[in-house]
Amino acid sequence: MTYRARQFEHIVATELPALFDDFDLDTSTREKLYGYVEKLQQWMCGVLKWHITVDRYKEFELRNSSAEGRLPSGPTGLGTSAARIRSLVSVGGLSLVLGQVGSGYFAGE
After folding, report:
1. Chain segment 12-23, per-residue pLDDT in tens
2. pTM for the whole thing?
3. Would you call 70 exposed, middle or buried from its count of C-beta atoms within 10 A (0-12, 13-18, 19+)?
């Protein structure tokens, strides 16, 4: 996060003024853009404070989280079929699907 903050500060200090000059922006527009930059800085500060105070993504919390309470069967619903590839392989379903490739079963073959 420190690198990202320094990168942002560098852009504001060096690249933003050059951009203003390149586009020949008037004072009013520059002030509006600096106002937006200030709001971005406040947002970044809020995100940093949130990450510091919330244990959700800290290493000790991730290491100590147990498998209890998780769904043993994995995700379900629209778009999650790839997550169940193991079930295809374990029951021979994958060989069935692979056997159909090149057989004209799939459209366009």
Report:
1. 999 999 999 999
2. 0.50
3. exposed
